[in-house]
Design brief:
Bound molecules: protoporphyrin IX containing FE
Order of helices and strands: HEEEHEEEHHHEEEEHHEEHEHHHHHE
Distance between the termini: 53 Å
Strand content: 15-25%
Shape: globular
Structural class: alpha+beta
Length: 531
């Protein structure tokens, strides 16, 4: 099949002549065909029916989560090293090896819970998904702004999302349903501590961190693996909003993060992030009080230092939001040679979910769309399905040979480069949680690391949303806070008691006078240190 167009002579068409999708010039786009100028309309009215029925199909289903987003193109530039170390010691992935090597990327930032046009000021994790178009095919790093997650087993994800999304009857998000799930799932408490602090509302997409969150592996030429976590650090600094600041922005502009990203790129102020990794040897690490495969935990920086491996620059806005941002499809299964999965149970569940939902959301041939297709040759025997528009065949390939193996002119398997990584897996098949759960310890450390104004915000926001919840839920959340940190628990208990006795539930619990909390959101939102 070819897209070549013969050069037709036409005397009715200029360069700007409107046509329909059959190529027919449109001579009247203001009036449909009717019997007399007062109607009725007729059913053979092809131009009208074609136009209106395409319009009727202008939307595909929204992403079931992360529906609200913004995207941009750019590039990743490798440092050719991991901090002070040789990168090849850890991974043979080609995109990292050479200093200065550039790989094109497409990034989509998002919020999670609400729909496609929901305000960008809501308290929510932010998605940070990067597609690297590498010479070995695509690599997707599908992460969030925070470095941890609410749960550690993928089987809990649909329940968690149901509890966080609007009530199935009222269609209103309800903090009682949110806290009901969290109080009954103590592993969520560390993430709740971040989300209810100013870290739950990043000032915009340019000034937030990113993280792969889940534990992956890197594999070197010898077929040896290490565990790895990925983190993005913004060169623009980090800024988060207080609840009041977010409300002030939302009253004027509920697209502020999309606009900030688009405007910055349009005026040539290209945002940049550095990519850093933390590495652990590939074993269970019994010396740690948490499991390296548990995504509710931070890996302490003093034991597992951050090592810079490259930087990313976003320098081009999409030409069409629907084509590029809405139809973009990222997945945790999309890795290249030298990168691998770990046994992190969330990662394994996610890896099934993404391409499954994309076959439903975008269609069976979603990987043929330019935004999702690799920027290198694709040669496969897969074809058919809705909306296929080209054959992914090699030029020499005998078109009759759409199978493999074959001794005729068909496609052949690639050569294995580097030693294959073949981990040993042994154990009983069980349905059990991991042993080292340590659900509240790091939440306590995170609380103690917050600045005073961040603690005040956290407590005020928690009291505000928890005070209307069932008392059993409140008691469980207080117990988790007490387990994390004595002061955290006490302040939460006192705050809820104060709210119950008729005090304003919005009252900040600490004293903001004299601390470094800025008073004006838009001019002076709050800078934060990386954590
Ligand atoms: C078992 C847990 C999870 C499941 C089953 C899951 C599932 C999904 C699904 C179905 C989508 C919609 C994808 C689409 O329509 O293209 C999605 C989007 C997304 N998820 Fe997850 N998710 C999980 C956990 C996580 C975690 C832990 C993170 C952060 C590291 C994350 C980050 C994202 C991002 C950034 C997107 C938006 C991608 C885009 O911009 O298109 N998810 N997830």
């Amino acid at each position: 099949m070819t897209n070549e167009q013969p050069d037709f002579e036409t005397n009715i068409e200029d360069e700007d002549t409107l046509t329909n999708r059959q190529g027919h010039p449109i001579t009247n786009n203001q009036n449909m065909r009717t019997v007399g100028n007062r109607g009725p309309a007729t059913l053979e009215n092809y131009d009208f029916i074609e136009k209106i029925s395409h319009f009727d199909r202008e939307r595909v289903p929204e992403r079931v989560v992360h529906a609200r987003g913004a995207g941009a193109h750019g590039y990743f530039e490798a440092y050719g090293a991991a901090g002070d170390e040789e990168i090849s010691k850890y991974t043979r992935a080609k995109l990292f090896q050479e200093k200065g090597k550039r790989t094109p990327v497409f990034v989509r930032f998002s919020s999670v819970i609400h729909g496609g046009h929901s305000p960008e000021t809501l308290r929510d994790p932010r998605g940070f998904a990067v597609k690297f178009y590498t010479e070995d095919g695509n690599w997707d790093l599908v992460g969030n702004n925070l470095k941890i997650f609410f749960i550690r087993d993928a089987i809990k994800f649909p329940d968690m999302i149901h509890a966080f999304k609007p009530d199935p009857i009222t269609n209103i998000q309800d903090s009682e349903r949110f806290f009901d799930f969290c109080a009954s799932s103590p592993e969520t408490f560390h993430m709740v501590t971040f989300i209810y602090s100013p870290w739950g509302i990043p000032a915009n997409y340019r000034m937030m961190q990113g993280s792969g969150v889940n534990t992956y592996k890197w594999v070197n030429k010898e077929g040896e693996a290490v565990l790895v976590k990925y983190h993005w650090e913004p060169k623009q600094g980090i800024r988060n909003l207080t609840q009041a600041e977010a409300e002030e922005i939302q009253a004027k502009n509920f697209n502020h993060a999309t606009q900030d990203l688009y405007d910055a790129i349009e005026k040539g102020d290209f945002p940049e992030w550095e990519l850093l990794v933390q590495i652990m040897s590939d074993d269970e690490h019994p010396e740690l009080d948490f499991d390296p495969l548990d995504d509710t935990k931070l890996w302490p920086e003093d034991k597992f230092p951050w090592m810079a491996v490259g930087k990313m620059v976003l320098d081009r806005n999409p030409e069409d939001y629907f084509m590029e941002v809405e139809q973009a499809a990222f997945g945790t299964g999309v890795l290249v040679d030298g990168l691998d999965f770990s046994d992190d149970k969330m990662l394994q569940g996610r890896t099934f979910s993404y391409s499954d939902t994309q076959r439903h959301r975008v269609g069976a041939n979603y990987l043929q769309l330019p935004i999702n297709a690799p920027k290198k040759r694709v040669a496969t025997n897969q074809s058919g399905g809705q909306m296929q528009y080209k054959l992914d065949r090699a030029p020499f390939q005998n078109p009759h040979i759409n199978y493999e193996p074959s001794i005729l002119d068909g496609l052949k398997e690639a050569e294995q480069l580097g030693k294959e990584y073949t981990p040993m897996v042994k154990g009983n098949l069980v349905r059990e949680s991991i042993d080292r759960q340590s659900n509240t310890k790091q939440a306590g450390e995170t609380y103690r690391n917050f600045e005073q104004w961040e603690k005040n915000e956290l407590l005020a926001n928690l009291v505000n949303d928890l005070s209307s919840c069932d008392i059993r839920i409140q008691e469980k959340m207080i117990a988790l806070a007490e387990e994390a940190d004595e002061e955290y628990g006490r302040q939460l208990r006192e705050g809820l008691a104060h709210a119950k006795s008729g005090g304003s539930s919005q009252k900040p619990l600490g004293n903001r006078e004299g601390d470094d909390a800025p008073k004006n959101a838009i001019e002076n939102s709050n800078e934060a240190e990386p954590y």
